[in-house]
Design goal:
The protein is α/β, with parallel strands linked by helices. The protein is built from 15 helices and 17 strands.
Length: 421
């Protein structure tokens, strides 16, 4: 299948400077107004917007290619299968996985972690075993392990965090011991933006023969992810965090581990033969993809990753980091505003509070100004508890954000302070 024209054009050599105006033109939603004011979208850590190449790829699939995959001999089924498996190869290349056998399509990071917890964990964990996480984790990297621990008698332990939001690596090292069976940590904290030292975490764990799962939901759009260089055993991410549709995500797994794991769900497409008494399971990666998959979502994910590659991951990262530096400096100068999470290594996420103002009120007032941020505990209640907070306000940046967006955020925060003076 040929690329959409917009993707082919974007693949030309990048301009010396990141052209944010050109990028913004690819995102139709950014041209709309909220409460009569131009939208400023600063909630990409919750869900990023979709560029035209992704929207067009999904539309093309739905209007010209749709049929069920892996089953039909007619042309539409063959074309749909080709599009679906082509998306898998794009993901493999994006992650630098060794083989498409290591790329499993799932609904998102949450389902990917649940798959590992149920397929890998329940067969290998027993009473006294331990799973090691951190206090920075999203609930999706906590609750599945709590559930498998309850079923097996294993124990969940969490490494602490320093006051600036940085992982206490020495404490993490001390928690690794002979009963540790798995390390499962975020690549980037969704609540604070902290970038964890994942290469060192993997090295420490592997020195003890412990496999590592990385929750890459917040890293995939901001960091260059090379699973072979990271040497991780599992890597999970969601498409909607990286400009793709919702309901599609990826579990990368080292082939030797996936091959030894039983299917988590049963049904069509994950089998080779079925009898009343027994079944023969399909090969990797399809033995983990029971039922009709999210085909259009996979196509959209492939288009999104090609879009990111065309813009250049380093260029995107540099642009977002410059926004983070400017926003951090300007927010830190505001009276009564407290930054929450100031680790030296951060992705483009800023959490903050304002004395005397509930974060939900901050978010509501900013929305009236056309500025969309996230407020709440960000599905990361343990780290909120460590800071003694019920919630924070969170602004998160993406490739389409600009310095003007920061200006609008600051203007909105001035109105918050005036109303709560």
């Amino acid at each position: 299948m040929s690329k959409p024209a917009a993707v082919a054009q974007a693949a030309a050599p990048a301009a010396p400077a990141f052209d944010v105006a050109r990028v913004r033109a690819d995102f139709p939603i950014l041209s709309r107004q909220i409460h009569g004011k131009p939208l400023v979208y600063l909630d990409s850590a919750a869900s990023s917007q979709r560029p035209l190449p992704v929207l067009r790829a999904v539309e093309h699939y739905e209007t010209a290619l749709h049929a069920n995959v892996h089953r039909g001999v007619h042309s539409l089924s063959q074309w749909a299968t080709e599009a679906y498996e082509h998306a898998r190869e794009i993901v493999r290349r994006f992650l630098n996985a060794r083989s498409t056998r290591e790329i499993v399509f799932v609904r998102g990071t949450t389902e990917a972690i649940n798959l590992v917890a149920n397929s890998w964990g329940r067969d290998r964990l027993s009473a006294g075993d331990e799973i090691l996480i951190t206090h920075l984790e999203h609930h999706a990297n906590i609750v599945p392990w709590q559930m498998v621990c309850a079923a097996t008698g294993a124990r969940l332990r969490a490494a602490p965090v320093r006051p600036n939001g940085e992982l206490d690596l020495e404490a993490f090292r001390a928690l690794l011991h002979p009963r540790t069976r798995l390390v499962a940590v975020a690549h980037v904290s969704n609540a604070l933006g902290t970038i964890l030292p994942v290469q060192e975490i993997v090295r420490l764990a592997h020195a003890r023969g412990v496999p590592v799962l990385l929750d890459g939901a917040q890293a995939i759009a901001h960091e260059a992810v090379d699973v072979q260089a990271l040497d991780c055993d599992f890597y999970a991410f969601s498409g909607h965090k990286v400009y793709a549709p919702t309901g599609i995500g990826v579990l990368y797994g080292r082939e030797s581990l996936l091959d030894a794991m039983p299917p988590w769900q049963g049904g069509g497409d994950m089998i080779l033969s079925v009898g009343i008494d027994s079944s023969t399971y399909n090969e990797l990666p399809w033995k983990f993809e029971a039922g009709t998959p999210n085909i259009s979502g996979a196509v959209g994910l492939g288009a999104a990753l090609e879009y990111v590659e065309a813009l250049g991951r380093r260029a995107i990262g540099a642009h977002e980091h410059s926004l983070l530096e400017v926003a951090t400096e300007r927010l830190a100068a505001l009276p009564r505003l407290r930054l929450v999470g100031t680790a030296p290594a951060k992705a483009a996420v800023i959490s903050f509070t304002i004395d005397g103002v509930h974060p939900h009120d901050i978010g509501t007032i900013l929305d009236s100004e056309g500025v969309a941020i996230r407020t709440g505990h960000h599905c990361a209640m343990p780290i909120m508890e460590l800071y003694g907070l019920a919630a924070t306000a969170r602004a998160s940046f993406a490739c389409y954000n600009s310095l003007e967006d920061i200006d609008r955020l600051l203007e909105g925060l001035r109105k918050v302070r005036e109303l709560f003076a």
